[in-house]
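Hi Y.,

Following your request, here is the sequence exactly as I used it, all 153 residues.
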Amino acid sequence: MPLIADRLAILGLELPSLATPAGAYIPAVVSGNLVFTSGQLPFVSGALPATGKVGGTVSPEDAKTCAATSVLNALAAVQFAIGSLDRVTRIVKVVGFVASEPSFTGQPGVINGASELLGEIFGDAGVHARSAVGVAVLPLDSPVEVELIVEFA
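Below is the corresponding structure, written out as tokens. Let me know if you'd prefer a different format.
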């Protein structure tokens, strides 16, 4: 079994099926030795586990879990684009969007769900640059959306 698949199994995780795009785009694009994913929502079996604004109807803890789920969906897009996550040499950047109530300022803690999981899966290669941005609303009223830039060999 490949190394990343082993690591996912140890963590009790598996990659979901590739999410169907909700618009006129593709899940990931390869340019040189980089993969750029489209924004990924936290779909689980085709449904969002939570909807609404963080700091309102969605707790920061639930949103953090959604960020981790979004990363798994993004990794499914990366795997589809390059064939195997064992080819990943570095997670370069994570961009996380958090649908937030106006007074909520904990976006970095929410997107830590994505960052921490990438560290668990890829170790030092999972350490990355990041943006965590609060927004008024996301597609389908999702509380979180995550996109990745990944280097591969």
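Helices lie at 3-10, 60-82, 107-122.

Thanks again,
Q.
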